[in-house]
Design a protein that fits this description.
The protein is mainly α. One of its GO terms (biological process) is proteolysis.
Length: 320
């Protein structure tokens, strides 16, 4: 798929900025204030917290989403699709599960390629056709292939370390370094907020990358675009109370379930024949046209783990 080198470059540059940011802060705190290695403790503390998250994260996801592991006898077609995609991705076959929520979506989790899990929700099974479901699972398999779970855990450590530094520097007392410590604390707090924005940016880039990965695994781009469209429409029809029940885990999902209702109107401009799907012809026409993303949606995207859906489908059209 064309254009993936640009995604890789953005991801590596973002992570380089993140690690450079925390390194400079720790060195400033230690050397400028003369506190030696004490502030390196906060880097270690942040890494330890993230290690625990990495270690226990899969169990937390399973518990919060009520995941039930599916045997091949329970879901033969689902297992067959996952096996085909795993072979194409050259990774061990992930475990397959289902979550009982009726919010249509899918997600991947696990510590590594060897301990990967893919899970579909109950609401997705009757909404998508086989090729659309395969494209969705191809996206999730790509997350596992690219080690996105581990990368997300690592980059999430940076804002956490900045927060620990800010808290310690701003509220440390005694000595002649109080003012300088408070100033550095404010700088660390600003770095924390900037770090959070960079983490969100990296998350959005990895969604684009997984979309590209799904196509590289042999899934049809118009089927992925159609699945994304249906998932947004399906989530918009689910009662608000059910969305709120799982909102805390939405970063794992293929789409941002919280923004579904605001994205519906924008996506309607892609479904030219109003049949509820996006065909290869409609996706091809999108390649040569401009899409209109509202200012409010652009701002919301900056604070989201997922790209704006209209831009996401436009990228699928442009890169195929």
């Amino acid at each position: 798929m064309k254009g993936t080198w640009k995604l890789k470059l953005r991801l590596w540059l973002s992570m380089l900025i993140m690690f450079g940011l925390v390194y400079v802060l720790i060195m400033l705190a230690g050397n400028f204030l003369g506190y030696g290695g004490f502030y390196q403790f906060y880097a270690l503390a942040g890494l330890f917290v993230l290690f625990l998250q990495y270690l226990f994260g899969p169990k937390i996801v399973e518990s919060s989403m009520g995941v039930h592991q599916l045997s091949e006898a329970e879901a033969p077609e689902l297992h067959q699709i996952v096996e085909e995609l795993a072979m194409a991705a050259n990774i061990p076959k992930p475990k397959v599960g289902i979550s009982n929520t009726m919010v249509p979506n899918a997600f991947a989790y696990g510590r590594s390629k060897r301990s990967g899990h893919v899970c579909v929700t109950k609401g997705i099974l009757d909404l998508l056709d086989r090729e659309e479901l395969k494209a969705v699972l191809g996206h999730e398999i790509s997350h596992i292939k690219h080690n996105d779970m581990a990368i997300t855990t690592v980059v999430s450590a940076i804002p956490l370390i900045c927060y620990y530094l800010a808290f310690s520097l701003m509220f440390s007392g005694g000595g002649d370094n109080d003012n300088r410590g408070a100033i550095l604390g404010v700088i660390a707090l600003v770095a924390y907020f900037l770090g959070q924005l960079i983490v969100l940016f990296i998350s959005r880039m990895r969604e684009y990358y997984a979309d590209a990965g799904s196509v590289e695994l042999g899934c049809r781009p118009e089927k992925l675009a159609s699945a994304l469209y249906k998932l947004v429409y399906g989530a918009a029809r689910v009662p608000e109370s059910e969305i709120k029940d799982i909102e805390g885990t939405k970063a794992f999902f293929l789409t941002d379930i919280s923004n579904a209702k605001s994205e519906i109107n924008n996506l309607a401009q892609l479904d030219l024949d109003k049949d509820g799907t996006i065909s290869a012809e409609e996706l091809s026409m999108l390649r040569n046209s401009k899409v209109n993303v509202s200012t409010s949606n652009k701002i919301m995207e900056l604070l989201s783990t997922h790209p704006d859906m209209l831009k996401r489908i436009k990228r699928l059209a442009d890169n195929n």
